[in-house]
Every structure is written in C-alpha cells, then in structure tokens.
Design goal:
single chain, 139 residues, alpha+beta, Alpha-Beta Plaits, five-stranded mixed β-sheet, 44% helix, binds flavin mononucleotide
Length: 139
C-alpha cells in the first residue's frame, strides 16, 4: 500500500543566500532525496523559502525534522500537510525556482503576511497550496 504524504512549509533564510549557498542545499537535497524517494520543489526569493515535499509519510516526516533543525533558515511555518494518492512532482528529486516575475511576487506577498500574523496564515494556506500546485509537472 502506498502511504504518500505531502508537506508545504515556508521559512526565512538566516542570511541572504548566494547562488553557491543555494547550490549547496540543492546538491544535498538531490543526493539524499534520490535515496529516500522524496520529490518536490524549493522556491526562493529575497531571503524567503517555500518548499513542497512529497514521499512516504515516514520519509517526509523525517526529512521535515532534519530541515527544521537546519541553521541556514529559521521561523518555519508548516502551511499544509495531507496524505495523497499520487505524486505531483514525481520526476523532481528537488526542483528549484528563483522567483522574480510579477505573478510570483503577488503570491509571495501572501507568503510574507503569513509570517506576520496567524489570521493571515490561515487565509493564505490555500493561496500558497495553489501557488505550489501551479508548478505541477503534469500541466
Ligand atoms: C531550505 C532548505 C531546504 C532543504 N531541502 C532538503 C531536501 O529536500 N532534502 C534534503 O535531504 N536536505 C534538504 N536540506 C538540507 C537539510 O536540512 C540537511 O542539511 C541535509 O539533509 C543533511 O544532509 P546529510 O545528512 O547528507 O549531511 C534543506 C535545507 C534547507 C535550508
């Protein structure tokens, strides 16, 4: 039986990330995720991360705990978690997008507000979920 699970979290980098810093994270992520069969996407803009993880429930939970303790970012907020029947990003061990178009900015505004207050967080859960799903590989 497949026991697939998805998680979306947002976080703040503890310093501005250079391309090299991002590369280092992605190298680690890709290497590990291929082993643990985790797939997903990492978004970054102006010191803010958003990441979508999918895989078996246990693999996702273990990875989330590991990522949460990583000092390269802080203030993690879990925006979404749910069992799923099918992967959305099944060929992406960890896709990366550095966001800079207008559309992304609008959604990132919602994201920023989520860091500031709980009401905004509740209101923005769906926006953030839909934003991640707009990168759906199957589209
Ligand atoms: C924003 C962010 C996203 C990360 N994403 C992943 C990931 O998808 N997979 C992963 O294995 N590590 C990821 N990491 C790195 C982990 O926190 C951790 O440093 C790494 O898994 C340790 O790898 P190791 O056990 O091979 O030393 C991420 C770190 C950050 C800051």
């Amino acid at each position: 039986m497949s026991d697939l699970y998805q998680v979306i979290y947002i976080s703040m980098a503890t310093k501005m990330m250079s391309e090299q810093d991002i590369e280092r994270i992605l190298d680690q992520a890709t290497k590990n995720n291929l082993k643990t069969d985790i797939t997903g996407i990492l978004l970054y803009k102006s010191g803010l991360f958003m990441q979508y993880l999918e895989g078996t429930r246990i693999a996702v939970k273990n990875l989330y705990t590991k990522i949460k303790n990583d000092h390269r970012h802080t203030s993690l907020i879990k925006m979404h978690e749910k069992p799923i029947v099918e992967r959305v990003f099944k060929n992406w061990a960890m896709e990366f997008r550095h966001l800079n178009d207008i559309n992304s900015l609008l959604n990132f505004d919602a994201y920023l507000r989520s860091h500031i207050d709980d009401t905004a967080k509740e209101n923005n859960r769906e926006t953030i979920y839909n934003f991640i799903m707009s990168f759906d590989q199957r589209n």
